[in-house]
Amino acid sequence: MLSVLLVLAAAGWVLVLWQAAAMDTSHAMSLDLTMGMAAPLFLVMWIAMMVGMMFPASAPMVLAFAHTQTHKRNEGAAYIPTWLFVAPYVAVWTAFGAIGYALAVGANALADDSMSTMDNLPRIAGGLLIVAGIYQLTPLKRVCLARCRSPLAFMFSYWRDGRRGAVSMGLRHGLFCLGCCWVLFLLLLPLGVMNIGAMLAVAALVFAEKALPKGDTVAIAAAGVLIVYGLLALAVPAALPTAM
User: Residue 156 and residue 109: Cα distance in Å, rounded?
Assistant: First the structure.
């Protein structure tokens, strides 16, 4: 199962890098917040991005579920395919990607009516950085991160038997994961959905928060960095490259 997750994550990054390279050659940076992509392509790339960025951090939870089911199968008991746990997780992030696309389309429409909106995009992104930093310190963030950091505690608290139980658990895990990271992913809209540097930074932060022994401390430290960088972007917009 670990090899499958690694292959999926690698495939996600390959697809994203390929699309980013194609956009670079077509001057994608002159496009809008959707990077010129129609909704279906945007969602495909969003899923690829999510798989590449989130599966390494979510691997312990998926492996814990898979290990439990493997143990049942070896004992001759009924077991549940791991994909029934993973699919709802992906569905949660896909739905969030659809919301993100709608926000990007709305922002583009607003920009068409007021060019000052795009002129101030770095400051808007800076404000979002500050919001992300503040969110890092909220009780909701701490609760969601705690659930994501402890696969065994999650399994003990939310275990449900059967196929419906697996779907319910996967959905719950996806919602906790979303609650932990949603603002960080929203940052990719003004910074560029195909901005590889921003993607790597978010992926590294998500992995550190969820997988490292001092991940909760990393989350607090990241809050300070995000807030300071956001304040810098408000004062010096050129310090924050955006999608426009």
Answer: 47
Q: Find the length of the chain.
A: 244
CA distance 37 to 31: 9
Q: Tokens representing 6?
A: 């690694």
Q: How far is CA 68 from CA 73, 99, 156, in A?
A: 9, 34, 12
CB of 129 closer than 8 Å to CB of 233: yes
Q: Which amino acid is at 27?
A: H
Q: What are the pLDDT digits (tens) for 193-244?
A: 667 778 888 888 998 998 888 899 999 999 999 999 999 988 888 777 655 4
Beta-strand runs (E) in 89-189: none
- Amino acid present at 15: L
* DSSP SS3 for 244: coil
**Nearest-CA neighbor of 91 among 51, 57, 126, 123?**
51
Cβ contact 222:137 at 8 Å: no
Spell out the residues 6+ positions from residue 120 whose beta carbon is closer than 8 angstroms to its own: 237
Give, as one character, the DSSP assignment of residue 136: T
| CA–CA distance, 105 with 36 (Å, rounded to integer) | 10
Query: What is the rounded CA–CA span in Å between residue 97 and residue 185?
Result: 9
Helix axes 39-74, 151-158, angle to 10 degrees: 80
Among 2-16, 44-58, 82-96, 144-158, the minimum mean pLDDT is found in: 2-16
Q: For residue 102, count other CB atoms closer than 10 A to its CB.
A: 12
Rounded to the nearest 10 degrees, the angle between the axes of helix 151-158 and helix 162-186 is 130
Are 33 and 189 in contact, with CB atoms under 8 Å apart? yes
